Amino acid sequence: KEIGKPKQMVTRSPKGHSGDFIAACRGDLDSLPSSNFDYSARLTEIVLLGNIACAVGEKLTYSMKEGKILNA
């Protein structure tokens, strides 16, 4: 309570997450969705690689350019 709420850094979409998704599926290109795939696809790739490394239990060498794990 003493610190207060954090400053809003991302403008909220008036359509909401689901509305953005449906508009994108329909080809509505009037505005970009609030979850921009320019960075989210790469971020998801990195997070999933971390999950794979934990499951395998070893350090993995990954080529972002090729999209392949090189040592397994």
Give the SSE map.
Elements: H1 16-25, H2 37-56, E1 62-63, E2 68-69
Antiparallel strand pairs: 1-2
- From the alpha carbons, calculate the radius of gyration and give it in angstroms: 18 Å
Shape: flat
- How far is the N terminus from the C terminus? 49 Å
Q: Topology as H/E string? A: HHEE
Strand content: 5-15%
Largest sheet: 2 strands, antiparallel
Quantity of strands, as a count: 2
Unreliable residue runs: none
Average predicted confidence as pLDDT: 84
Determine the oligomeric state from the structure: single chain
In order across it, which strands form the biggest sheet? 1-2
Structural class: mainly alpha
Helical fraction: 40-55%
Give the count of helical stretches. 2
Summarize the structure.
The chain has 72 residues and is mainly alpha-helical. It has helices at 16-25, 37-56; strands at 62-63, 68-69.
Account of the protein in words:
This protein has 72 residues and is mainly α. The protein is 42% helix and 6% strand. The chain contains 2 helices and 2 strands. Strands 1-2 form a two-stranded antiparallel sheet. 0% of the residues are buried. The mean pLDDT is 84.
Note the main attributes of this structure:
single chain; 72 residues; mainly alpha; two-stranded antiparallel ribbon; 2 helices
